Amino acid sequence: MKRGQWRGAWGLAAALLGLPAMGQLEEPPEDAPQYSCFEAAREAGVLSETNAAQLCQGARSDAPAKCFQRVQEEGFLSEPQALQLCQYAQPSDDPASCFLKARKSSFLDETQLLLLCRPLIADQMNLYPYGL
């Protein structure tokens, strides 16, 4: 990626992820886990930048990107369903494994499996979109 394109991608990511505008950054801040998630989602090549930014909002690691990629490869979920399942994922809760195991061993439909396996914070964010 050329230097100007990199800055443009970072600016777009910062705006979509709600990160403060930081002028002309040479490198993204090292403590921006949302950006590492965004980059992982883009590198996988399965999401548009807008959807990658949505997936990685509030991310604390690249776990949402890894979750999304896994359920897209193995779970046959639509993109909106995979976004719903994986947004706010953390390595400790692994919603992709939950969904894939439950799909094989139950008769629940996909909507019920998504509700069962998505991270608890996703439900809280739906109830309190501006914070707790």
Structure keywords:
single chain, mainly alpha, signal
Explain the overall architecture.
The model is unreliable at 1-6 (pLDDT under 50). Helix 2 packs parallel to helix 4 (63-74), helix 4 packs antiparallel against helix 5 (79-86) and helix 4 runs parallel beside helix 6. This protein is mostly helical and 132 residues long. It has one domain (3-17, 30-127). The longest helix has 15 residues, at 3-17. The protein is elongated. The protein has helices spanning 3-17, 33-44, 49-56, 63-74, 79-86, 95-105, 110-117, 120-127.
Q: Which whole number gives the mean pLDDT?
A: 78
Globally, the shape reads elongated
Helical proportion, percent range: 55-70%
Strand content: under 5%
Counted up, domains total 1
Number of distinct helices: 8
**What is the string of helix and strand elements?**
HHHHHHHH
- Protein structure class: mainly alpha
What is the CA-CA span between the terminal residues?
A: 39 Å
- In this structure, how is the largest beta sheet organized? none
Using only C-alpha atoms, the radius of gyration works out to 15 Å
Overall number of strands? 0
- Low-pLDDT stretches are 1-6
Keywords: Signal
Signal peptide: 1-23
Show the helix and strand layout.
Layout: H1 3-17, H2 33-44, H3 49-56, H4 63-74, H5 79-86, H6 95-105, H7 110-117, H8 120-127
